[in-house]
């Protein structure tokens, strides 16, 4: 039955659904990756760091390369989910999510062009591309390969369990654990927020980078909340055994750890791994505990003064 023949609804949209609420929040909070200010100042600050070593700078490039590739990958890989969702409110939200992932890709590409390469040239460092395979450890590659496979499986076998696994891969691991850990690390190293334990050396505050990260984290609060709502409903309704969710998340955690634990020159990896494991535990608790409450959308997209999001 086509949408124009659908007589089951009085109105086209359910304004009270959490998916429609997330979509409206996305429209309200729209931002332009080319309007983020402060990149010229970031570039100058990094140029003024006369004692910056190439090994230290390489870890910044490593971080941003992984973010850019990750945002590009999920932009591509989310489409199967959009194709199998039946509800127009869900479809609208996932459409907005794909658009936002594309914007995130755009921001990291801009930062590499406008800041990373000019600073490398200034210091006489090797000028590298964000697609250089040196930046991607085996665990990172496996995580995104597994996520792509979980999404594509929906086109062959669309079941509640496979949907739950797809949400676990993308919304609850890639975005909720890996990305949030990376954002926490960047905020800690390049601003006054976050943890003092992350940065080994004292970096200048990079307001342009941190502002872009803050906008991206605001978007991803919605993405994480959407996935948590979906998986929680599957578990609480009994359609999917909670052990499937726990097993899927636990199986992916080593890939996350492998992605964040290879820093040693400028960043301390230990608090990042700890942060990631704490996020994973919190996700499982919210999904499996009947009394747990997922924050509303405004809280999900807000940032606390310590640089952490409510979705954390």
Can you give a write-up of this model?
The chain has helices at 18-28, 39-47, 54-77, 79-84, 88-123, 138-153, 160-190, 207-237, 242-260, 269-288, 297-300. The chain has 312 residues and is an all-alpha fold. It has one domain: Ribonucleotide Reductase, subunit A (Orthogonal Bundle), CATH 1.10.620.20. The longest helix has 36 residues, at 88-123. The chain is globular. 43% of the residues are buried. Mean pLDDT is 88; it is low at 303-307.
First-to-last CA distance: 40 Å
Largest sheet: none
CATH superfamily: Ribonucleotide Reductase, subunit A
Q: Which parts are unreliable, with pLDDT below 50 for 5 consecutive residues or more?
A: 303-307
- The CATH topology label is Ribonucleotide Reductase, subunit A
* Beta-strand content: under 5%
Count of domains: 1
The averaged pLDDT comes out at 88
Count of DSSP strands: 0
The helix fraction, in percent, is 55-70%
CATH architecture: Orthogonal Bundle
Question: What is the overall silhouette?
Answer: globular
CATH class: Mainly Alpha
Q: Secondary-structure element order, as H and E? A: HHHHHHHHHHH
Structural class: mainly alpha
Total helical segments: 11
Rounded to an integer, what's the Rg over CA atoms?
A: 20 Å
Keywords: Coiled coil
Organism: Halorientalis brevis
InterPro entries: Ferritin-like_SF (IPR009078), RNR-like (IPR012348)
Protein name: Ribonucleoside-diphosphate reductase
């Amino acid at each position: 039955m086509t949408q124009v023949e659908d007589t089951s609804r009085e109105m086209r949209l359910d304004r009270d659904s959490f998916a429609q609420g997330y979509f409206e929040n996305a429209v309200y909070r729209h931002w332009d990756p080319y309007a983020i200010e402060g990149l010229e100042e970031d570039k100058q600050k990094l140029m003024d760091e006369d004692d910056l070593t190439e090994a230290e700078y390489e870890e910044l490039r490593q971080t941003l390369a992984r973010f850019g590739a990750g945002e590009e990958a999920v932009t591509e890989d989310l489409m199967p989910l959009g194709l199998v969702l039946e509800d127009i409110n869900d479809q609208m939200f996932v459409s907005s999510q794909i658009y936002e992932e594309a914007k995130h890709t755009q921001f990291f590409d801009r930062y590499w062009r406008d800041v990373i390469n000019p600073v490398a040239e200034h210091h006489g460092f090797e000028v590298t591309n964000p697609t250089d395979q040196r930046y991607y450890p085996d665990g990172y590659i496996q995580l995104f390969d597994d996520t792509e496979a979980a999404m594509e499986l929906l086109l062959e076998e669309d079941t509640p369990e496979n949907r739950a696994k797809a949400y676990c891969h993308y919304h609850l691991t890639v975005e909720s654990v890996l990305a949030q850990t990376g954002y926490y690390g960047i905020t800690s190293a390049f601003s006054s927020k976050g943890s003092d334990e992350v940065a080994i050396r004292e970096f200048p505050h990079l307001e342009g980078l941190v502002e872009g990260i803050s906008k991206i984290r605001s978007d991803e609060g919605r993405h994480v909340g959407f996935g948590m709502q979906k998986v929680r409903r599957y578990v609480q309704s009994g359609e999917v055994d909670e052990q499937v969710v726990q097993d899927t998340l636990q199986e992916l955690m080593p890939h996350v750890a492998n992605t964040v634990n290879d820093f040693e020159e400028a960043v301390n990896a230990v608090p990042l791994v700890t942060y990631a494991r704490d996020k994973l535990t919190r996700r499982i608790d919210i999904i499996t505990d009947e009394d747990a409450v997922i924050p509303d959308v405004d809280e999900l997209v807000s940032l606390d003064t310590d640089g952490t999001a409510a979705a954390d």
